[in-house]
Design goal:
two-stranded antiparallel sheet; binds coproporphyrinogen III; globular; alpha/beta
Length: 345
């Protein structure tokens, strides 16, 4: 029997069904853990590579060919839509996104204009080419969530405590909500463009939302993430919502309008299922450092995740955060085989 895209294990699990095997993919499955990625990126800056259709297609395909994962994630970065509308920023190797002029005033909001389809033609072209090449393997489009993007914009770069971001949030809520409203519109447009070009699902990355209490998340962030997720609701593709250290936020992040809630490794998956509540699938949650241990240990931990996932309405196996650059690709290949062969019927 040939599997169609719509019957793929990944999309079935997103819809709360139980496919023949548990689908698996890895956040950051493309990237520095792969020698073929490092070879291709030689001499090309990160952001430049995100606007080169041929490179985006090839880098996205690399882990799919190598591992036989159940989904591809579009190769890009959360700051790409901001770069596309002209925000002055770069991705500095070993550091992450760095913004030339940190955003802290009303006057700076004008630069956050709507995305034009023309701003991202190389990107939508890459989505179209990938959908053809991937066949029955779904492509996940993604965007950064308003809080995580705002953190880079307000701090000017990566931050441990998000102090300046929270200072703005607490001291000038009007400006905060205006800024997040603009970023949410842009993130929503970026997701929409990817789905219209053929992506089968979307993931909203709120990587740093775990820095917030539930009360602050609900007041200052959730309405904006909900707006992003709502902006693609009519397109009918599954929406995954993920953050790190979000054990206390899992229910609220689902309630923001997600079909699938991504879970990091700190909360056992069956407990995460309870916190998320009925009507949504979960994705996760093996500790990304576990794959550095002997194979027997990795398999034992993966089995615990798969067993805990039985209580979910749909379970997509993943790591609890992105693949670390030092990861041995062969360890991930063995893990994919283990998940595919594990009987959860
Ligand atoms: O395979 C995939 O998952 C798709 C690719 C992807 C990248 N960035 C490529 C990338 C995805 C989904 C992202 C999202 C992203 N970018 C997030 C959310 C996901 C998460 O990990 O929490 C965040 C917070 C960023 C911001 C960012 N961009 C960081 C923190 C870094 C790493 C900086 C460093 O050098 O350590 C980047 C750069 C980046 N984005 C790289 C890749 C492959 C490394 C750049 C390189 O290869 O030179």
């Amino acid at each position: 029997m040939t599997v169609t895209l719509n019957d793929s294990a990944f999309l079935q699990a997103c819809r709360g069904q139980r496919p023949a095997h548990t689908p698996v993919w890895f956040m950051r499955q493309a990237g520095r853990s792969l020698p073929e990625y490092l070879a291709l990126r030689e001499g090309t800056a990160m952001l430049e590579s995100c606007f080169r259709t041929d490179m985006v297609v090839e880098i996205t395909m690399q882990p799919v060919r190598r591992y036989g994962v159940d989904a591809a994630i579009f190769f890009s970065d959360i700051v790409v839509p901001l770069k596309a509308i002209g925000v002055d920023l770069d991705i500095v190797p070993g550091t992450g996104p760095v913004v030339a002029e940190p955003v802290r005033s009303w006057a700076q909001l004008d630069q956050f204009r709507d995305i034009d389809a023309d701003d991202v033609t190389p990107i939508t072209d890459a989505v179209k080419a990938l959908v053809g090449e991937l066949g029955s393997t779904p492509l996940i489009g993604f965007a950064g969530a308003p809080f995580t993007l705002a953190s880079y914009l307000v701090e000017g770069g990566p931050s441990r405590d998000h102090r300046l971001t929270k200072q703005l949030m607490y001291s000038d809520p009007q400006l905060w909500h205006a800024l997040l409203g603009r970023i949410a519109a842009i993130a929503g447009q970026f997701l929409r463009l990817q789905v219209e070009a053929g992506a089968s699902a979307v993931q909203l990355f709120d990587s740093w939302a775990g820095a917030l209490s539930l009360a602050d998340y609900d007041t200052y962030v959730k309405p904006h993430s909900a707006a992003v997720l709502a902006s693609v609701a009519d397109l009918g593709v599954p929406r995954i919502h993920f953050g790190v250290g979000t054990g206390e936020l899992l229910h609220s992040m689902g309630d923001a309008g997600a079909d699938v809630v991504g879970v990091d490794w700190r909360v056992p998956l069956d407990e995460a299922v309870r916190r998320v509540g009925p009507g949504r699938a979960v994705q996760g949650n093996l500790d990304p450092t576990a794959v550095f241990a002997p194979t027997e240990f990795v398999h034992a931990r993966a089995a615990e995740v798969l067993e805990a996932g039985r209580s979910a309405e749909g379970h997509i196996f993943n790591l609890g955060h992105g693949v670390l650059p030092a990861t041995d690709p062969d360890a991930l290949a063995r893990l994919v085989d283990f998940v595919h062969e594990y009987d959860v019927s």
